[in-house]
Structures are given as C-alpha cells and as structure tokens.
Amino acid sequence: MRYISTRGQAPAVGFVDAVLAGLAPDGGLYVPQTWPSFSADEIAAFAGKPYAEVAAAVIGAFAGDEIPKADLLEMCREAYATFNHPAVVPLVQIGPNAFLAELHHGPSLAFKDVAMQILARLYEHILGKQKRRQTILCATSGDTGGAAVEAFRGRKNVKVMALFPEGRISEVQRRFMTAAVEDNVACVAVAGTFDDCQAVVKATFQDEVLRQAVDLSGVNSINFARIAAQAVYYFTSAVALGAPLRPVSFCVPSGNFGDAFAGYVASRMSLPIGKIIVATNSNDILATAFETGRYARGSVHATISPAMDIQSASNFERLYFEGVSREAVETARAFEAFATAGAIDIPPSALASMQALFRGVAVGEDETRRTIVATLNETGELIDPHTAVAVAALKRSPDVPGPVVVLSTAHAAKFPEDVAAASGVTAILPRGAADLAGRPERFDRLPAETEMIKAHVRAFAEA
Questions:
Q1: What are phi and psi of 425, to 5 degrees?
Q2: pTM of the full predicted structure?
Q3: What SS3 class is residue 23?
Q4: Contact 457, 210 (CB under 8 A)
Q5: How confident is the model at residue 429, as a pLDDT?
Q6: Beta bridge partners of 190
Q7: In the chain, which end has fewer C-beta atoms inside a 10 angstrom radius, N or C?
Q8: What average pLDDT does the chain have?
Q9: Is residue 433 part of a domain?
C-alpha cells in the first residue's frame, strides 16, 4: 500500500513512512494510492468479533505487509484493553431507529482514545525497530491533546508537545494534558484559537530544517493512521445494526472533519452507508460548505462544544481531493488560496459527489442545551454538548434513512459545568479519573507566534 499527497508534490511513501511523517512535505495530506475494500461476506463476518480483531483487519488493510499481522493484532488487543467497556464502542438505543455509539470509554474519556491508543503502539513498534526517537507536535481543540498525552506518556522513543488555546477548552480537558508528570510530555497554552494552534503546527512542519533536527511527527487527524483507526467503529456499529444487508446512516459532531471523513473511508471500503450528517455548532464552515458549496472561514466563536470551535477543517482537503477526481494541482491551488483568502468555491461536480454522502447541519447554543435536557428526560442518557449537537442535527433530519448512529464523542463529565447548567445534573468522572482535579498542573504559556513556538519545540526536543 502506497500513500500519495493531496497536493501531488511529494513522493509516494509506504504506510510506516506516512504514519511517522503525519503531514506530507509539500503541505498536503496523505491518502492511499488506491482504496482497499472488503467483500460483503468479509463485512458480515465482523459480526460478533472482538473489537480488537475488527480493528486489526481494517487497519491491516491500510498497513499491508509493512506491519506483521500478528504484531498488529497484539497491538490492537493491548490498545483496547485500556477501555473500561468490554465492547470498547457500545451502542445505546435512544429512539425507535436511533443509537448512540459511545466512543468515550477510553483513558481520556473521548473518541480520540480509539485512534490514539493504537497509534502510540504503532509508533513504539516502528521506532523501536528503527532505533529512532521522534518529537510529536499536536494542536488540540480539547480532546486530541489529552488522548495523545495519555497514549504516549512515559514511552521511550517519543516526546510529545500539545498546544491548546488558552481559556477555550474545559478544565477537565486541560487537566488530562497538564497533570501528566512524565518528562516526555510538554503542554503549551497558546494565546489564541485552535485555528491559531493548528496554523503554527502546519508552519512548523513546513520548516524542513527543524523538522529533520527534531524528527518531527504529528498525531492530529492529519495522520492517516488515525483516520484508519476511526473507520473501525463505523464497521462495528453498522454490522451490529444489520450491515451489509442494509445501509446504516451516521450523525457526526464535527470540527476538524477527521471523524466524519473516517466514515467516507469506511464507505470506500464497501461499507454501505446511507448518509453522514455533519453536525456543527455555530462555527459552521463545514455545514455551510455542504449546503451551499462555499467553504469560507469566519471568526471562531466560543461555544459550550469547544472541540468543534474550528473554522479551518484540515481533513476537508482530503474530501476535496477525492471530489475533484484526485486532481492534485487543483487541490493545491484551492487550499493555497484558502490559506490566503480564507474561502474557496467547491466545483459543482465535486459538490454533487460530496452531497451524495454528506449533509451539513449547524446547531445553535440554545438548541444544544435543550437537547441535553431533552435527551436526559426522554432516554435517561446524560450526554455532553458535542453529542447534543449531533442529536439535535439528527432530529432536524427526519428523512435520513435509518437506522442512524450518533457518534457520542465525549463523556459528559468532561464538561461538568455546561452539562449541569443545561440539565441540572452533575456528571461524575469515572473512578480512574476521579482525582483529576486534585493533581498539580504543569504547562507553559506562549503567544500564537510561530517562531517563538518553534524555538520552544526545539528546546524541548533537545533537552
């Protein structure tokens, strides 16, 4: 399996090199040169299998022969043994034809754990064989940083630095990063938005001298291995509800578009998906793009679903690349223009192909709060604000073919104040994280200045 850049100016690489690089050197994102697929019988055979076995099959389709199958299966078993539910991603029914896929049973109580736990083990396996050390730099809108810290803390061959927008994530989200005591972890509160953090990360990756000096890698959803790992729960959820004999739809709370793009990946692997509803909060760049064809960056609004407070969704470039029939020159032109002008118009044929699978719905703050309390009253389930955005979007999409799975991306206890304000109920942290508030924090504060943060990365990597 070979991987190519969406911008076409980087050589094709294998799975291992794509994982360790994260971002392609030309600024594009890696995608498989050809999409692997499963037969209907192979998909049906996933029914009843342990989650780790399905994960090994799906991720293995992208790894090819670069990771021995037995080693990958063992990594998956270790990764998903860290979850506190035997199903790893259980389904909970919330309506006649509606279900929650609970993605928050991992160590940091968010869906990012599903991919990050296996990614850490892939890194450890690959770097150990290569006798190599790397520095991981990630930007987080709330959950990626905590999941990365939980997955990589204490590992021998990796240092990890997480950048987060100061004051724009919940205290619990912050503490999952900043309470780590291991020397291979550093956290930086950036005076700005997530988009500022993400721009710094992208600029740092474009600095070839620094990139090579500290052997830089990224574990944001720009890393295709994360997308592959997130595609797994589309398969397990759909098969549990009757796939491949019938299509299953999904509703995904989305900010950086990685989780929703994983659904596209599953569909390319022959999983029958009816529709993917891309649910956004008032930062509605994605919802607007799917509805109007105009992908335009606006000001970032702070909301009670902060992980979705994004106005530049990195993974949309991958979908655009597919929509324009993999024309790398057109993709590079479009996203270089977006970087400077902040807006692009999706070509009509590309928009039509996107709309065949995706629908965008934007949900406001009041509706999000009402959905938290309504879901509690109607089903007994206490959901976090991000999940509430998706449930609200589903209620506004009665024509979507069912059954429909809402991806429940975080535990309600990661947002205790907002959940309590909406529902009158205080969400309790699971036992393993109950003492989080009492742990001392350790982080630095920096302005959103690329050169200053690059110097900080170098000093941390070389310490």
A1: -120, 135
A2: 0.93
A3: strand
A4: yes
A5: 87
A6: 165, 446
A7: C
A8: 95
A9: no
Does residue 199 contact residue 446 with C-beta atoms inside 8 Å? no
**Six-digit token string for 429:** 């942290």
Name the packing angle between helices 144-152 and 171-178 (round to 10°): 30
Here the tokens at position 257 are 């578009």
Report the distance separating Cα 317 and Cα 333, nearest Å: 11
**Backbone angles phi and psi of 386, in degrees to 5:** -65, -45
User: Residue 153 in contact with residue 179, Cβ under 8 Å?
Assistant: no
Q: Identify which of 322, 314, 390 has the alpha carbon closest to the alpha carbon of residue 359.
A: 390
Does residue 203 form part of some domain?
Answer: no
Q: Is 414 a catalytic residue?
A: no
> What is the number of domains present in the chain?
1
The Cα-based distances of 13 to 130, 210, 321 in angstroms read 16, 21, 18
Task: Give yes or no for a cis peptide into 447 (omega within 30° of 0).
Answer: no
The residue range of the domain holding 255 is: 1-124+222-428
**269, 37 contact by CB (below 8 A):** yes
377, two tokens? 């009253």
Candidate list 49, 69, 112, 156, residue with the active-site label: 112
**Tens digit of pLDDT for each residue in 108-150?**
999 999 999 999 999 999 999 999 999 999 998 878 899 999 9
Tally of residues, the chain: 463
Nearest-angstrom CA–CA distance, 129 and 124: 8
CATH of the domain at 229: 3.40.50.1100
Give the DSSP per-residue string, 163-198: EEETTSS-HHHHHHHHT---TTEEEEEEES-HHHHH
**Is residue 150 a part of any domain in this protein?**
no
The pLDDT of residue 277 is 98
Pairing of strands 98-102, 404-408: parallel
